[in-house]
Structures are given as structure tokens and as C-alpha cells.
Design goal:
Blueprint (H helix, E strand, L loop, with lengths): L1 E3 L2 E5 L4 H18 L7 H10 L5 H26 L3 H25 L7 H17 E2 L13 H14 L3 H7 L3 H13 L12 H17 L7 H5 L1 H30 L13 H10 L2 H17 L8 H23 L1
Antiparallel strand pairs: 1-2, 2-3
Helix pairs in contact: 1-5, 3-4, 3-11, 5-6, 7-9, 11-12
């Protein structure tokens, strides 16, 4: 709802047809911009760099912020389960500073996005949705094209400002009254009483978060209440669980490969990219990873080496020789 010049307007959820038309309009604007020399995201970045409005160091800092925040969330969770409350608070303060820094960098980096092809196309898409979805107090469509452009801008600003963000949707998905609606709605097959094609972005987000918390509550090793109620701690737990599943999957894949190769203890798998090498590295157990570090250090020190001269091979030979000596001594005593 928005009130402009003592007139009340209601921006209603767009129909699937309106969404489709808005998407078509978005693509049309992108196509037109490709012939008119409008900035792309790449050319805008270059312009910012050329005019000292932005640096590559800031670009890398902004891009790496999500990864660094995830690392802090994991750290928070590990310290929490280790009963190190002071370390938890320290990580929380660092996370808050990082979020503040990320928001400031994002504001500067995207200050001119409206002048890019994607920025113009997105603005046109939203204006199209607002224009075809606005109604008056009597539920009659409002012809915004006959109104001043200021009214459309005011409606668009109020609409964007009133949309719930991820934090709001996440908290709402845990709200007790919503949980009751969610539970009964799932049993009936419809939560909001409309087909999925009529769901708004906010409704889809709320459903996604509700499903996530359902999965957490049904997890065989679900976290305690204090973790579930703290978004950052819970994110840390989720990240660790994802890594755990990825490791188990990689180990299963490694076991399958070993069985196909006749149960060999060591299997060398060529990697085509850094990402492939990283996946292969994750398949190594702790002992295998240590052996690899030993071999790499020996190769770096001496260059080319035969298999039997590798540190782990020498250790195996020594162990076997010692075992054979013990066996001979036992037989001699008999």
C-alpha cells in the first residue's frame, strides 16, 4: 500500500502473464541497449577503475566477502560447541565489521548500475510490473501511464522499500503461528491457496526457508535450540554438514574407483583443472594426505626419485624388515 497526494494505491501480486510480459520487456531492453552503446557491467567496471572511483583490490575484497563470512560462521560454531564463549563473541564482532564493510563496498560498486544495460532492463521490468498490478481502494486497475512519472517512481520506491529481506523471511519461517499455517498447508497441498505459478518471490522465499528448517528439525544430529535460534551459528553448522556430505560422497566415489582398479591402495588420477585437483585432494584420507606431503617435499629436495626411494616406501621396507627379523628370531628360539 502507498499513499500519494492523499490517494491510496495498492500494488498487488502480478499474474503469471504479467511476469512473462515483464521478462519479455527485460530482454527487449537488453537487446536495444546492445545497439546504443549503453554501459555493460564490464565496461562500467573499467570506467570506475579508469576514473579512480574503484580499485581491483576493492573488487577482490567485495567478491571474497561471502567466503570470508562463511569461514567466520564456521569458526563461531566450532567455538560454541567447544564452550569458548569469548571466542564466539570475538568472531561475531569480526563478522559484523565484515558485513558493514561489504555493505559499504557494495553501495559504492553498484551506485551506477542504473546506467548499465542490466540496470535499465531491470528498472523497466519493475515499472512494467508496478504499472499492471496497481489498484485503487475499490480494487479497480489504475492507469499509471496517465499519471505523472513522479507517482510511478514513488510507488516503485515504496514497493522496493517494503519488500521483506532475507533476514525477515528467515525469522518469519520460524514464527510459531506461521509454523502452524505451514504444517497444515503442506498437508492440504497448498500453503497460500494458489498454484505455484502465482506465488510471489517473497512467498517462494518463505517456503524455501520453511523447508530448510524442516530438514534441520528432522536431521538425526540436529543442533541444539541455541544454535537454531542464532542465524550465524546455524549457518556455520549447515556449512560443516555440507562439507561432511561432500567428503563422504568423494570417499564413496574414491572407493568405487579403487574397487574398479582391483583394490589398489594407491590410485593416481590425472586432473585437468584446479577444481578437479581440489576434488581429488579432498578424497585423500589424513594418512594419504600426509604421505603426499612427504613425497612432494622429497621431490622438491632431490628431484626425480624412484618409487622405492620415497620416504613412505622406505618406512614400509623398514617395517617389513623388522617384522621378518622378529619372525626369524621366534623360529630360532624354537
Amino acid at each position: 500500500m502507498c499513499q500519494v497526494n492523499n490517494t491510496t494505491y495498492f500494488v498487488c501480486p502480478p499474474s503469471p502473464a504479467d511476469k512473462l510480459n515483464a521478462s519479455v520487456a527485460y530482454e527487449d531492453i537488453l537487446y536495444e541497449c546492445s545497439f546504443t552503446g549503453v554501459f555493460t557491467q564490464e565496461s562500467l567496471l573499467q570506467m570506475l577503475l579508469d576514473n579512480n572511483l574503484w580499485t581491483m583490490e576493492e573488487e577482490n575484497e567485495l567478491n571474497s566477502a561471502p567466503t570470508r563470512m562463511d569461514a567466520l560462521k564456521v569458526e563461531m560454531y566450532k567455538r560454541f560447541i567447544a564452550f569458548q564463549s569469548r571466542r564466539v563473541e570475538q568472531a561475531k564482532r569480526l563478522l559484523l565489521r565484515l558485513r558493514t564493510r561489504q555493505a559499504e563496498l557494495a553501495r559504492r560498486r553498484h551506485a551506477y548500475d542504473l546506467y548499465t544495460d542490466t540496470g535499465l532492463a531491470e528498472a523497466f521490468r519493475l515499472q512494467h510490473l508496478i504499472s499492471c498490478s496497481t489498484r485503487d481502494v475499490n480494487d479497480n486497475p489504475v492507469d499509471l501511464e496517465s499519471q505523472s512519472e513522479a507517482i510511478l517512481r514513488r510507488l516503485l520506491d515504496d514497493y522496493l522499500r517494503s519488500r521483506p529481506n532475507e533476514f525477515d523471511l528467515r525469522k518469519l519461517s520460524q514464527y510459531s503461528k506461521w509454523r502452524m499455517i505451514w504444517s497444515s498447508g503442506r498437508q492440504e497441498g497448498r500453503v497460500f491457496g494458489v498454484p505455484s505459478t502465482w506465488l510471489t518471490d517473497e512467498q517462494q522465499g518463505l517456503i524455501a526457508w520453511s523447508k530448510l528448517y524442516d530438514n534441520i528439525n528432522e536431521h538425526p544430529e540436529q543442533p541444539i535450540k541455541e544454535v537454531v535460534e542464532d542465524d550465524d551459528l546455524l549457518d556455520g553448522w549447515i556449512i560443516l554438514e555440507q562439507k561432511k556430505r561432500e567428503k563422504e560422497r568423494s570417499e564413496r566415489e574414491g572407493d568405487d574407483k579403487a574397487r574398479k582398479r582391483g583394490g589398489a591402495q594407491e590410485v593416481f588420477i590425472p586432473a585437468e583443472t584446479r577444481e578437479d585437483a581440489k576434488r581429488i585432494e579432498q578424497m585423500n584420507e589424513a594418512g594419504a594426505a600426509f604421505t603426499k606431503r612427504q613425497r612432494m617435499a622429497a621431490l622438491k629436495s632431490k628431484g626425480v626419485m624412484a618409487e622405492q626411494h620415497m620416504p613412505d616406501s622406505q618406512q614400509k621396507i623398514s617395517v617389513q624388515a623388522a617384522q621378518q627379523f622378529r619372525d626369524r628370531m621366534k623360529q630360532a628360539r624354537r
